[in-house]
Amino acid sequence: MDIATADTQPKNRVALTINGNRQDLEIHPWVTLLDLLRGPLHLTGTKKGCDHGQCGACTVLVDGERVNSCLKFAVTLDGAEITTIEGLGTPDDMHAMQKAFVEHDAYQCGYCTPGQICSAVGLLAEGRAKSREEIREMMSGNICRCGAYVNIADAIEDVMGHGSDASQKEAAE
After folding, report:
1. d(Cα 21, Cα 82) in Å, to the nearest integer?
2. Which CATH class is domain 3-87?
3. Mean pLDDT across the chain
4. Which long-range CB contacts under 8 A does 75-80 form with residues at least 24 apart?
5. pTM of the complete model
6. What share of the chain is helix, strand, coil (3-state, %, to 5)?
7. Which CATH superfamily is domain 96-172 in?
8. 15 by DSSP, 3-state: which?
9. Separation of alpha carbons 161 and 159, rounded Å
10. How does strand 81-83 pair with strand 12-18?
Protein backbone atom coordinates (compact mmCIF):
# COMPACT_ATOMS: atom_id res chain seq x y z
CA MET A 1 0.00 0.00 0.00
CA ASP A 2 1.43 3.36 -0.98
CA ILE A 3 1.19 6.51 1.12
CA ALA A 4 -1.65 8.00 -0.93
CA THR A 5 -3.73 4.84 -0.42
CA ALA A 6 -2.91 4.75 3.31
CA ASP A 7 -4.46 8.19 3.80
CA THR A 8 -7.78 6.98 2.39
CA GLN A 9 -7.98 3.90 4.63
CA PRO A 10 -10.42 3.98 7.55
CA LYS A 11 -9.13 5.10 10.92
CA ASN A 12 -10.09 3.96 14.39
CA ARG A 13 -11.08 6.18 17.28
CA VAL A 14 -9.05 5.69 20.43
CA ALA A 15 -8.94 7.57 23.72
CA LEU A 16 -5.62 7.53 25.56
CA THR A 17 -4.42 9.39 28.61
CA ILE A 18 -0.84 10.31 27.85
CA ASN A 19 1.22 11.90 30.62
CA GLY A 20 -1.99 12.89 32.37
CA ASN A 21 -3.64 14.46 29.31
CA ARG A 22 -6.58 12.77 27.61
CA GLN A 23 -6.13 12.42 23.88
CA ASP A 24 -9.05 11.53 21.59
CA LEU A 25 -7.42 10.33 18.40
CA GLU A 26 -8.26 8.85 15.03
CA ILE A 27 -5.48 6.56 13.87
CA HIS A 28 -4.84 3.79 11.41
CA PRO A 29 -4.95 0.32 12.94
CA TRP A 30 -1.33 -0.41 12.02
CA VAL A 31 0.18 2.56 13.91
CA THR A 32 2.34 1.47 16.82
CA LEU A 33 2.30 3.30 20.11
CA LEU A 34 5.91 4.31 19.46
CA ASP A 35 5.10 5.87 16.09
CA LEU A 36 2.06 7.63 17.54
CA LEU A 37 4.12 9.11 20.37
CA ARG A 38 7.03 10.22 18.22
CA GLY A 39 4.95 11.26 15.21
CA PRO A 40 1.74 13.22 15.63
CA LEU A 41 2.09 13.67 19.41
CA HIS A 42 5.69 14.96 19.17
CA LEU A 43 6.83 13.09 22.30
CA THR A 44 10.29 12.30 20.99
CA GLY A 45 11.85 11.32 24.31
CA THR A 46 10.81 7.74 23.62
CA LYS A 47 13.41 6.36 21.23
CA LYS A 48 13.15 4.01 18.28
CA GLY A 49 16.03 1.58 18.59
CA CYS A 50 15.62 -1.81 16.96
CA ASP A 51 11.85 -1.50 16.23
CA HIS A 52 11.58 -5.25 17.04
CA GLY A 53 11.17 -5.25 20.84
CA GLN A 54 14.72 -6.41 21.46
CA CYS A 55 16.51 -3.34 22.84
CA GLY A 56 14.08 -1.60 25.21
CA ALA A 57 14.86 1.94 24.00
CA CYS A 58 11.14 2.49 23.41
CA THR A 59 9.98 1.38 26.87
CA VAL A 60 7.08 3.36 28.30
CA LEU A 61 4.59 2.65 31.07
CA VAL A 62 1.11 1.50 30.08
CA ASP A 63 -1.22 1.43 33.06
CA GLY A 64 1.94 1.40 35.18
CA GLU A 65 3.53 -1.61 33.47
CA ARG A 66 6.65 -1.64 31.31
CA VAL A 67 5.87 -2.01 27.61
CA ASN A 68 7.99 -1.95 24.46
CA SER A 69 5.98 0.66 22.58
CA CYS A 70 7.28 -0.54 19.21
CA LEU A 71 5.37 -3.82 19.70
CA LYS A 72 1.97 -2.37 20.67
CA PHE A 73 -0.61 -1.20 18.19
CA ALA A 74 -2.03 2.03 19.59
CA VAL A 75 -5.62 1.00 18.79
CA THR A 76 -5.34 -1.90 21.25
CA LEU A 77 -4.79 0.53 24.12
CA ASP A 78 -8.12 2.37 24.10
CA GLY A 79 -8.69 3.77 27.58
CA ALA A 80 -5.10 3.14 28.73
CA GLU A 81 -2.93 5.49 30.74
CA ILE A 82 0.48 5.94 29.16
CA THR A 83 3.49 7.55 30.80
CA THR A 84 6.54 8.48 28.76
CA ILE A 85 9.82 9.96 29.96
CA GLU A 86 8.28 13.42 29.45
CA GLY A 87 5.51 12.49 31.89
CA LEU A 88 7.82 11.40 34.69
CA GLY A 89 9.37 14.76 35.37
CA THR A 90 10.86 17.94 34.00
CA PRO A 91 14.39 19.33 34.23
CA ASP A 92 13.19 21.57 37.07
CA ASP A 93 11.15 18.87 38.82
CA MET A 94 12.72 15.50 38.09
CA HIS A 95 11.35 12.13 39.14
CA ALA A 96 13.50 10.41 41.78
CA MET A 97 14.72 7.91 39.16
CA GLN A 98 15.75 10.69 36.79
CA LYS A 99 17.68 12.37 39.61
CA ALA A 100 19.39 9.09 40.50
CA PHE A 101 20.44 8.52 36.87
CA VAL A 102 22.02 11.97 36.82
CA GLU A 103 23.70 11.54 40.21
CA HIS A 104 25.14 8.13 39.27
CA ASP A 105 26.09 9.08 35.70
CA ALA A 106 23.86 6.21 34.59
CA TYR A 107 23.92 7.25 30.96
CA GLN A 108 26.59 7.84 28.40
CA CYS A 109 25.30 8.63 24.95
CA GLY A 110 21.80 8.89 26.45
CA TYR A 111 19.94 7.14 23.66
CA CYS A 112 18.69 4.28 25.83
CA THR A 113 18.19 6.43 28.93
CA PRO A 114 14.46 7.25 28.53
CA GLY A 115 13.63 3.57 28.11
CA GLN A 116 15.97 2.59 30.94
CA ILE A 117 14.36 5.10 33.30
CA CYS A 118 10.78 4.13 32.39
CA SER A 119 11.70 0.47 32.79
CA ALA A 120 13.35 1.14 36.16
CA VAL A 121 10.25 3.01 37.40
CA GLY A 122 8.09 0.08 36.29
CA LEU A 123 10.48 -2.39 37.90
CA LEU A 124 10.20 -0.67 41.27
CA ALA A 125 6.41 -0.51 40.98
CA GLU A 126 6.37 -4.29 40.40
CA GLY A 127 8.16 -4.73 43.72
CA ARG A 128 9.79 -8.03 42.75
CA ALA A 129 13.45 -6.99 42.59
CA LYS A 130 15.03 -7.37 46.02
CA SER A 131 18.72 -7.60 45.12
CA ARG A 132 21.21 -6.15 42.66
CA GLU A 133 21.22 -9.45 40.78
CA GLU A 134 17.44 -9.34 40.44
CA ILE A 135 17.59 -5.72 39.29
CA ARG A 136 20.12 -6.65 36.60
CA GLU A 137 18.07 -9.66 35.49
CA MET A 138 14.78 -7.77 35.39
CA MET A 139 16.37 -4.87 33.50
CA SER A 140 18.00 -7.19 30.95
CA GLY A 141 15.43 -6.24 28.30
CA ASN A 142 16.95 -2.76 28.17
CA ILE A 143 20.24 -2.69 26.32
CA CYS A 144 22.85 0.01 26.84
CA ARG A 145 25.36 -0.11 24.03
CA CYS A 146 27.71 2.14 26.02
CA GLY A 147 27.80 -0.30 28.93
CA ALA A 148 26.58 1.91 31.78
CA TYR A 149 24.99 -1.10 33.53
CA VAL A 150 26.86 -0.71 36.83
CA ASN A 151 25.76 2.93 37.15
CA ILE A 152 22.20 2.07 36.10
CA ALA A 153 22.00 -0.59 38.82
CA ASP A 154 23.46 1.90 41.34
CA ALA A 155 20.77 4.45 40.46
CA ILE A 156 17.97 1.91 40.78
CA GLU A 157 19.32 0.65 44.10
CA ASP A 158 19.45 4.19 45.45
CA VAL A 159 15.82 4.86 44.57
CA MET A 160 14.93 1.45 45.97
CA GLY A 161 16.53 2.53 49.21
CA HIS A 162 19.35 0.01 49.25
CA GLY A 163 22.12 2.05 47.66
CA SER A 164 25.36 0.49 46.51
CA ASP A 165 28.31 0.32 48.87
CA ALA A 166 30.08 3.06 46.91
CA SER A 167 27.09 5.42 46.96
CA GLN A 168 26.49 4.75 50.66
CA LYS A 169 30.11 5.64 51.40
CA GLU A 170 29.80 8.84 49.35
CA ALA A 171 26.59 9.78 51.19
CA ALA A 172 28.28 9.23 54.56
CA GLU A 173 31.20 11.54 53.68
Report:
1. 9
2. alpha beta
3. 92
4. 75/12, 75/14, 75/27, 75/29, 75/31, 77/14, 77/16, 77/33, 78/14, 78/15, 78/16, 79/15, 79/16, 80/16, 80/17
5. 0.89
6. 40, 15, 40
7. [2Fe-2S]-binding domain (1.10.150.120)
8. strand
9. 5
10. parallel
